Description:
CATH superfamily of the largest domain: Hypothetical protein, domain 2
Organism: Pisum sativum (Garden pea)
Keywords: Metal-binding, Zinc
Binding site for Zn(2+): 132, 136
Strand content: under 5%
Radius of gyration: 17 Å
Structural class: mainly alpha
GO biological process, one term: base-excision repair
CATH class of the largest domain: Mainly Alpha
Pfam families: Adenine_glyco
Amino acid sequence: xxxxxxxxxxxxxxxxxxxxxxxxxxxxxxxxxxxxxxxxxxxxxxxxxxxxxxxxxxxxxxxxxxxxxxxxxxxxxxxxxxxxxxxxxxxxxxxxxxxxxxxxxxxxxxxxxxxxxxxxxxxxxxxxxxxxxxxxxxxxxxxxxxxxxxxxx
Length: 153
C-alpha cells in the first residue's frame, strides 16, 4: 500500500515539476507556485515549493559555471564513485566528509534543504558512493558498474 502511494506521489511531483527539468522549474512564476502549493494531493507548503524553484535556479547557475550539474557533483568525489565495503548496517554512515563538503558548498551557492544527511542520501542514490553491504546481492553489481571505464557528462 505504502509503495503504491509513494509511486502516485512521485508521479504527481514529476508531473507538476515538469519531469524535474531544472530549466523549466527555474522559470516557474508565483501563479504556478501557488497552484502547486494548493494541490491537496501533494501537500507542499508555499515555502517548500518556492525552495524547489530556488534550488532549480541554483542548478542553472552551477550549469553556467561548471558546464553541467553532473560535473559539479562528481567533482566532489574526483569523478569516481566511492566504493565502501561495509559488513554491518550499523557501519553505514548517514553522512560523510564528502557529503559535508558538498553540502557546505551547495549552501554557500544558495541551495536550501541540502544538509549533509540529505546530500549523502543523494550521493547513494546517484551512485557517487556505493554503500551496499558486502553480502548484499547488489554490492558486486554496483561495484562492477562503478569500476567500469566511464565518463561523466
